[in-house]
């Protein structure tokens, strides 16, 4: 695996517009890993992360009838709870992880009650109203989710501002403040809380074989937890993943009558049981780098729309998640926030292509 790590900047550097163009090029440019780490986050970040990533285990272990009530087939299972709906390369459906999707229009102070525009009714995954677990089923979940996502978007706005400064200098005809405006005002930003279920005890994977050795043997199917892909939005905000031994700390809520306090955060392991599991980036030359996001930091990855907006100056990079196969009851939880333009936004000024048209093209790739 490649030894080069991601570029790191502080939140204060972003606020003060002190991130150099060289750093941005190293983070997001054509030969980059396509990822930027932001450190020195607000003090509430660590607590919100611990709480929400614990909630991911509590959520995934709710009674089946509650989870079924949170599933929205009319939104293509891309709002609310989704498990076993995502197709893998093999043609089978992914039952190794569950996802809870939320449209982040609450960032503007109020959620939509209906699609913003009937002209975009073919995109229910981006326009559907959110569905939340009943408060007595998962006390405090919604508030924690919205607070952490708002912090991630606040930080993404600052990363977008730095990208705008770069693009104004490097991209002919670039609209000043475009990306910051898109990230700040979009009603289509989507959050995905992920719970990777403990690996079945009958899984047989030799953990003594590292990613490097598998590549040396010509084995390419390393993306066992999340297949190789590029993101399609602008900037994807990522928390560091946590690992929870669910046999030692069962994520079950005591049934109660009336209001209950939020559940206690679950204890996290110090790291992954398989040190080679987790997020990996595949460079344009085929080199694979394992990415470690510090627990008190956020990471931001480039998406395909950002590549369009900047005329290729910043580029989306393929990435995947390699699974663990320790046979224990260890789950992996994380949060991704996909900042995306409004459906009516023009994302390719040469052709006039809107984000809605781009989404249609993306969908056609997989049909």
Description:
Helix 6 (141-170) packs antiparallel against helix 7 (178-185). Strands 1, 2, 3, 4, 5, 7, 8, 11 and 13 form a 9-stranded mixed β-sheet that branches. Strands 6-12-9-10 form a 4-stranded antiparallel β-sheet, with no helix packed on it. Strands 14-15 form a two-stranded antiparallel ribbon. It is an alpha+beta fold and 367 residues long. Strand 14 and strand 15 form a beta hairpin. It contains 10 helices and 15 strands. The protein has helices at 11-15, 21-28, 45-60, 64-69, 124-127, 141-170, 178-185, 211-216, 304-309, 355-365, and strands at residues 7-10, 35-39, 80-83, 97-103, 190-196, 226-229, 235-239, 242-245, 278-282, 288-290, 298-302, 319-322, 330-339, 346-348, 353-354. It is 27% helix and 20% strand.
